[in-house]
Amino acid sequence: MGIKKVSAKDIKINYTFDLSTKDLKPEPVFFKQERVEKAFNIVLKTEKEGYNIYVAGPEGIGKITYSMIKLKEAASKKNSPEDIFYHANFEEPQKPIFVMVPAGVGKKLQRDINKVIENLKETVVRQFESKEFEDERVKLQKEIEEKKQEVLKRLKEDAEKLGLATIITPSGIQLLPIVQGKVSPEFLKIPEIKVEFEKKLELFDEKFRDYLRQLRELDYQLFENIRELKEKVSRYVIDNAFFKIEEKYRNLKQVINFIDYLKKHMAERIDIFIRWKMFEGDLLLQKAIEREIDIFRINVVVDNSKQEGAPVIYEQIPTFKSMFGYISFKAEMGILYADHMSIVAGSFFKARGGYLILKVRDILKNPLLWENLKRVIFHKKIYLSHYPYEEIFPFHVGIYPEPVPFNITIALVGDSLMYQLLSLYDPDFNRLFKVKGEFDPVVEIDEDVMKRFPVLIKNIVLQESLKDVDAEGITELLRYSVELSGSRKKINTIFSILTDILREANAVSTEDIITGKTVKNVIKDRRFRLNLIEEKIKKMFEEGKLLTDIKGKKVAQVNGLSVIELGDFSFGKPSRITAASYIGEKGIINIEREVELSGPIHSKGVMILSGYVGHKYGKDTPLALSCSIAFEQSYGEVEGDSASAAELLAVLSSIGEIPVRQDIAITGSIDQLGNIQPVGGIKEKIEGFYSVCKIKGLTGDQGVVVPSRNFDNIILDDEVLQAVEDRSFHIYTIDNIDDAIKIMTQIDPLEFHRQIKEKLVEYYRQAIKGKK
């Protein structure tokens, strides 16, 4: 291609629109993100172990929004997952049991159980105070009492045969001697009677014990009969209370099994309801008993009654509590206490059967949270967390609820760097997140992009409740997106930037619609807020504190171009590059490297210069050359190889003592064969040199030389574009160093190389002569 002078019409951005957002309907817009779409498709279709997705891309590109759209679309085609409730484990109270029931059943069952409990509070006492119960109890007591009297009668007869009397006392049955038909403990004071009495006791002892055993058995039989009666009545009351519920849920086996389990243990603890009624009116005691009654209630931790399809949850602030749930402890006597009613579910429980979106940086802020997340995916069980109580508060009565099966697809959202780091340093990561969907922040502009870009602006307007944008405003937003992409043929897809611009435009707009002029002013104001350091540097050029020449020619001095990155803002400035050559054997000396101010890429670029000089001039004559190069007035690290073409020109100018134009700045990377390679920051570099020329005075000859392969990257603001159109500022593209030599020295490259060769031969001769 050789040298080409760029005209204004070649680099103008000519995209325009003729519709405002008023004329458009919103719809989801994501330009050319086929990788992400295919990644989601494979995850949603596979749904196997480890098929979770990592959604990569820069902040503001729409990772969360896109994930929500795709997952909600898939979720709408799935059935709503089950409700989950916990109930008391009567055998092991510290291990509550979960039951899963169809969506919507959980809350209904909870209400039904509560109604039964309220019913039993009244009916149980009534039933136990009924005439039927009392008659049956009295009947049982009477039957046993008759049997006891029969035993006592036989005991009395057998005792009297041995001259012993049976006396019933509060402490039991007592035997006393019968003397002359009389019975008195005073007889035991007479030694002869006492001795005889003890002999009789010894003879009667075995039989006496047998009678006592019979009496105890009758007492136990009475207790058992009354207990069975109470159980029978309890079962009757409870069966009546649960009859309608059992009919209602007869087709749900898990509910019927739970009700049978609950009824059994409720009957065994029927006294709780009796005590509740007994203490009616005593609020303090009733409250204590109410806590006991809670053992019969159920705790619905996941309610999907209003859920349509599978759940899609975006956990914005992931913590142990929000993700795993927690146990709401109560303080009693200085001890933390909890039961199954204290369980609160987290996102893992609520997202079962659906999808969970998490930001990787938020998860990794707590390493324990990351490890527990992996553990859940590995073991497919959701354990309720005791964190932080188990670590910092040992005095608690903990419960360990039965773990719930894990059935969730996770979308982990983050940047590409975090994906690479996790892939390298976490051996589990790629097993758990088998699919990566990466957003492309810069895409080619085509007919589809042009057609849908206004719809994107309409989406932002509606989401943010902003004024509509006219056609010129949409055009300015597109131009700004193109500028951010760094190429006239591409567009930046980080649309959060456009959202911020529209918010600010909406705030300052005085019309009913956001116009192109308003958008332009907002973009200009944003730059003004960020460019303080750029203005300070421009002032230093104006005051002459930063030395630079923009007129005439000079030997061994070239205006290179550099970019200063400030995180949220970058700008270009000319850098004065100088070289000093002399006879020696050190080759090209990088002063920045010598003082450890040269980055590795810059150092590599300087070594490539040595390769070019040796390849071009040292094939038939040894080089006796030492040449130092430096970025003048540079006080920080120099990095990158975009100034290597300028450095080579400075070196060759110094060797051949050939003056170089100062009104032309150059940027470009060079290889060892002299080819000019593309570099970054073209817009900033051109505008940076233009601003310095404007400060010091435009002559009409000034300009910039850039690699031809950066032609599409020449995107200029209106002022510089106008200067190019007016031919007061010029832009040239080149392919190789010979093109640069022709422009910068205005000498034919062959003649230029001949002069350099002669000087290097002379250096060598002088070096040989000096050695002799």
Question: What can you see in these coordinates?
Answer:
- The protein is of the alpha/beta class and 772 residues long.
- 50% of the residues lie in helices and 17% in strands.
- The chain has 28 helices and 32 strands.
- The chain has an eight-stranded mixed sheet with strand order 1-32-31-28-23-24-26-25.
- Helix 18 runs parallel beside helix 20 and helix 24 crosses helix 28 (749-771).
- The longest helix has 58 residues, at 191-248.
* Count of DSSP strands: 32
Q: What is the average per-residue confidence, as pLDDT, rounded to a whole number?
A: 89
- Our estimate of the beta-strand percent is 15-25%
Helix content: 40-55%
Sheet of most strands = 8 strands, mixed
Radius of gyration: 47 Å
Tally of DSSP helical segments: 28
**Poorly predicted tracts of residues:** 391-396
Structural class: alpha/beta
The general outline is: elongated
**Strand neighbour order, sheet with most strands:** 1-32-31-28-23-24-26-25
Distance between the termini: 49 Å
In short:
With 772 residues, the protein is α/β, with parallel strands linked by helices.
For the structure shown, list the relevant keywords.
772 residues; alpha/beta; five-stranded parallel sheet; 17% strand
Write the layout of secondary structure elements.
Layout: E1 4-5, H1 8-11, H2 34-46, E2 53-56, H3 63-75, E3 83-87, E4 97-101, H4 105-128, H5 131-161, E5 164-169, E6 172-179, E7 182-183, H6 191-248, H7 253-268, H8 271-278, H9 283-293, E8 299-302, E9 312-314, H10 320-324, E10 326-327, E11 330-332, E12 335-337, E13 343-344, H11 347-350, E14 355-359, H12 360-364, H13 367-379, E15 381-382, H14 389-392, E16 396-397, E17 404-405, E18 409-414, H15 416-425, H16 429-432, E19 435-438, E20 442-444, H17 447-464, H18 471-485, E21 490-492, H19 496-508, H20 516-530, H21 532-543, E22 553-555, E23 557-565, E24 570-583, E25 587-590, H22 591-594, H23 600-617, E26 625-631, H24 644-656, E27 659-661, E28 664-666, E29 669-670, E30 676-677, H25 682-696, E31 703-707, H26 718-725, E32 730-734, H27 737-745, H28 749-771
Parallel strand pairs: 2-18, 2-19, 9-14, 12-16, 14-18, 23-28, 25-26, 28-31, 31-32
Antiparallel strand pairs: 1-32, 3-4, 3-8, 5-6, 6-7, 10-13, 11-12, 15-17, 20-21, 22-27, 23-24, 24-26, 29-30
Helix pairs in contact: 4-6, 4-8, 5-6, 6-7, 8-9, 17-19, 18-20, 19-20, 24-28
